[in-house]
Amino acid sequence: MDDLKWDREFALDQAAEDEELLQELIEIFKESSTSDLANLKQGISKGDAAMSMASAHSIKGAAASLGLKGLRDLTAIIEADCREGSLRVATEKLSDLEKLLSLLQEL
């Protein structure tokens, strides 16, 4: 869980100190990140850096808004490399991303 580097206080602040809203936002992110991860994998398999970049960007934004710094930082690195037209980092870091997203399911 430490790998997520979750700033729960920040996330709760973003949810206007509403625990129920925070949990709803986390559930929405769990669903959207599953789809984004599938799209990232599809982008890698198709050699489509733009598709992978968009997926990493989506995960990064949601992670940032929920204070999930570890996830935000990893997807920022993937996104930046994809922006350069490369899939090297996305391919190399895919298992790390999957690990972090599985930890997200525990929130």
Plain-language structure description:
There is one protein chain. By secondary structure, the chain is mainly α. The protein has a single domain, classed as Four Helix Bundle (Hemerythrin (Met), subunit A), CATH 1.20.120. The chain is 79% helix and 0% strand. The protein contains 5 helices and no strands. The longest helix is centred in the N-terminal third of the chain and has 28 residues. The model has no long low-confidence stretch (mean pLDDT 96).
List keywords for this structure.
Four Helix Bundle (Hemerythrin (Met), subunit A), 79% helix, mainly alpha, elongated
List the helices and strands and how they pair.
Blueprint: H1 8-14, H2 19-46, H3 49-65, H4 69-83, H5 88-104
Helix and strand composition category: mainly alpha
Report the sheet with the most strands, covering strand number, pairing sense and barrel closure: none
- Count of distinct strands: 0
Radius of gyration: 14 Å
- What top-tier CATH class fits best? Mainly Alpha
Number of domains: 1
- Total of DSSP H or I helical runs spanning 4+ residues: 5
Strand content is: under 5%
Shape: elongated
> Mean pLDDT across all residues, rounded?
96
CATH topology: Four Helix Bundle (Hemerythrin (Met), subunit A)
The N- and C-terminal alpha carbons lie at a distance of 9 Å
Secondary-structure element series: HHHHH
> Roughly what percent helix?
over 70%
In the predicted model, the low-confidence regions spanning at least 5 consecutive residues are none
